[in-house]
């Protein structure tokens, strides 16, 4: 079967693509930026890729001979205030492009919408579902609640709260009931619904076997981790205060925190159906889902993370627009060192940030992250999805990976911290020399003042970092003079 997948770089679609390839399906993957094709599927013989922006579909060409399509585009974490209109526009453009093809079925992952008063986010999901309905193809909608899996937004937020706070004074919405579902079960529903005519033009709630409050989810999460936690809920925290509480305690952006608080006030209880029997699935309980997620984390085998979505930070453009470093109107800090062990240096570069730190003056990096968070930035809490692997589009603390190619020996990062300008950090090995370049393009007088304010710190922070990248503990590596302007 030839299948069209949207949202290829997203949390669910990336995992689903791998599962469908194991089942020997041919995939046509839609990406907004051809520089962000996931490495795991880039060279797969059953995969092809087309560049499509469903908000600007003028030049898009969808192959006529597709049999099925997955609509997995989601705008919950977008920085735009009119995300409802954007989601509607996206769904309508997708429908207009798919209707002329041979597509027989579209599968859509939505949210459970049974509560009498839906959040803004869930209302939008329901509107998208109605927009996708067509006389040219059959629509199958799976409506899920909280998705539990390594790298999911809900899992990482709960993880942050539980592991950082032994005692919690929390908002009253922690008593809201929900039915969490493991990401493995979500993928099995999506893959299992493929081509089943009995599911055509129907919607199904998919959910785990337990009804839990968010408070119970936190406490059960703590049990799995072997932690003792105490939670007191108060009715006095307003939605805005609750959003700030989530923002400062967890790695989420403020926009996503606000959207989550709005949704967490709504009960997410599914309506029973025969979908489990049709697909042949018995969803796992919450504790099992959490335990399996940590197995993936401990094996450093997390396939996708919500933090790697571009919407999790400030970067909004296509990566290709920023891959070439600017030459004019910029300040630069350029350093070089001789590389004596290329494999060691490349591995150190590819492991930078996250739990591994920045190899030099980590306290100052953390301070910069705290300051960024205080002023509404992403801070350092996003970390990185894998401790040793990077690809274009990944989040890396308060940076975004623009380019990562070990064969070319080049890693390029773009700053997503709050800055009066734009900043890049590049590592590149050429002729046994490691070139480390920090480039800053200031915006106005504040940008120039900022550069000169942080310049004194560059001497020891960036020197220490490049020294650590080229120097094995048992080696003495000669330095090449640094230059800056």
TrEMBL record:
NAD-dependent epimerase/dehydratase domain segment(s): 3-85
InterPro entries in the record: DUF2867, Epimerase_deHydtase, NAD(P)-bd_dom_sf
Protein name: Uncharacterized conserved protein YbjT, contains NAD(P)-binding and DUF2867 domains
Entries under Gene3D superfamilies matching the protein: NAD(P)-binding Rossmann-like Domain (3.40.50.720)
Organism: Winogradskyella sediminis
Domain of life: Bacteria
């Amino acid at each position: 079967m030839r299948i069209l997948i949207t949202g290829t770089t997203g949390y669910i679609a990336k995992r689903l693509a791998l599962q469908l390839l194991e089942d020997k399906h041919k995939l046509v993957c839609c990406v907004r930026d051809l520089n962000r094709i996931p490495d795991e599927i880039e060279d797969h013989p059953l995969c092809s890729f087309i560049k499509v922006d469903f908000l600007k579909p003028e030049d898009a060409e969808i192959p006529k001979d597709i049999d099925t399509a997955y609509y997995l585009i989601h705008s919950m974490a977008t920085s735009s205030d009119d995300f409802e209109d954007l989601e509607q526009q996206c769904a309508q453009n997708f429908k207009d492009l798919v209707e002329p093809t041979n597509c027989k079925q579209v599968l859509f992952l939505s949210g459970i919408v049974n509560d009498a008063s839906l959040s803004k986010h869930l209302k939008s999901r329901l509107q998208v579902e109605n927009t996708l309905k067509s006389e040219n193809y059959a629509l199958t909608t799976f409506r899920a609640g909280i998705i539990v899996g390594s790298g999911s937004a809900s899992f990482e937020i709960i993880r942050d709260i539980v592991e950082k706070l032994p005692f919690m004074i929390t908002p009253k919405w922690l008593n809201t009931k929900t039915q969490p579902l493991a990401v493995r079960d979500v993928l099995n529903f999506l893959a299992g619904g493929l081509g089943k005519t009995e599911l055509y033009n129907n919607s199904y709630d998919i959910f785990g076997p337990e009804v839990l409050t968010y408070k119970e989810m936190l406490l059960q999460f703590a049990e799995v981790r072997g932690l003792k936690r105490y939670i007191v809920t108060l009715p006095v925290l307003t939605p805005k205060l609750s959003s700030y509480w989530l923002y400062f305690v967890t790695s989420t952006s403020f926009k996503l925190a606000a959207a989550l608080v709005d949704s967490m006030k709504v009960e997410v209880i599914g309506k029973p159906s025969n979908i489990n029997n049709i697909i042949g699935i018995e969803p796992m309980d919450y504790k099992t889902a959490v335990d399996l997620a940590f197995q993936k984390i401990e094996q450093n085998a997390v396939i996708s993370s919500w933090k790697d979505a571009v919407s999790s930070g400030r970067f909004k453009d296509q990566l290709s627009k920023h891959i070439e470093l600017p030459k004019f109107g910029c300040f630069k800090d350029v350093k070089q060192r001789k590389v004596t062990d290329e494999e060691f240096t490349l591995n150190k570069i590819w492991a930078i940030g996250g739990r591994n730190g920045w190899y030099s003056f980590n306290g100052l990096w953390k301070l910069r992250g705290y300051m960024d968070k205080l002023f509404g930035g992403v801070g350092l809490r996003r970390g990185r999805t894998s401790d040793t692997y990077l690809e274009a589009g990944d989040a890396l603390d308060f940076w975004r990976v623009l380019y990562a190619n070990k064969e070319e020996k080049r890693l390029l990062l773009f700053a997503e911290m709050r800055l009066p300008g734009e900043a890049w950090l590049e590592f590149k090995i050429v002729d046994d020399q490691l070139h480390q370049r920090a480039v800053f393009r200031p915006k106005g007088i504040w940008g120039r003042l900022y550069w000169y304010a942080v310049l004194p710190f560059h001497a020891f922070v960036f020197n220490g970092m490049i020294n650590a990248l080229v120097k094995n503990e048992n080696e003495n590596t000669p330095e090449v003079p640094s230059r800056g302007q």
